[in-house]
Amino acid sequence: MRKNLEVCLNADDHIQLADNVKTAFTAGASRIELCSTMQLEGLTPSATAMTIAAHAMPSEGELLIMIRPVANQFIVDATILKLMLTQIAHAAHAGATGVVLGALNANDVDIAATTALIACAHKYNLATTFHRAFDCIEDSEKAIGLLTELGIDRILTNGTKWTDDKSVMQGLNHLQTIISHANDHIEIVIGGGVTTDNASTLWQLANNNLVSLHAYSGAHNKDGWVDPLLINAILNQRTNEQAKND
C-alpha cells in the first residue's frame, strides 16, 4: 500500500511559496496543505496564495487548502459557516484538490456544520480532511465512525489532546487505537511534530494501514524554505520500513 507524505506550507510569503511548492513535490511529497498565519496554528490562506500554489504544483499533485477563518476556536456559528463555505468555493476556483476543515459543538463533532461543509466540498469535487479539531473530541472512536458516515476522507491527528501541546511521539499509543478504530474506512493523517528523528517509528504505524504522515517544521529549514533533504530522509525511512516488511 502506498504511503503518502503531506507537507504543510506557510502561504504568507508569496515569493517563497511557489518555490516551496515545487521543491516539496520534486522531493517526493504527495500533497501539500496550504495555511496562512502558522503562528496561530494555521488559518485560511488568501485567494492569491491559493492561486500561486495551484499554478506551481504538478498535475499529479494534491493541493489541500486550510478552511479556518478564526483562530483559537473550532465552534462554527452561522456567520463563520457562511464564510467557510465561501472559502471552500474560492479554494475550488483557485485549483485546489481538497480542503481541510473542522467544526465542533463543545467537545464533539458539530454534525450540522460539518455536513454543510462536506456537501459544499463535494459539490466542487474536493477531498476533505477533518483537522486537529479532532484532538479536542472526548470520544475519538465515536467521532471516527461519525466522520466516516458523513463522508470525510481523512482525519488529521497527533494522538494527543489539542490543548496539551504535546509531541506526536507522546501520542503513539492513542494513535494505534485511532488507526485500529478507523480500520481503513477513513485515512488517518499523523501530524504535529513529524521529523526525520521519528519518521521511522511513525511509518511503522502506517504499515498496511490507510495512514499518511504530515510534516511542517520537520520539512523546512530555519529560514522557512522547504528542505528536499529532510523530505528525502522522511521518505527513505518509509522505504526502509517497507523493505523490512516485504
UniProtKB/TrEMBL annotation:
Coiled coil: none annotated. Pfam families: CutC. It comes from the Bacteria. Belongs to the CutC family. This is Copper homeostasis protein cutC homolog. It comes from Pseudoalteromonas neustonica.
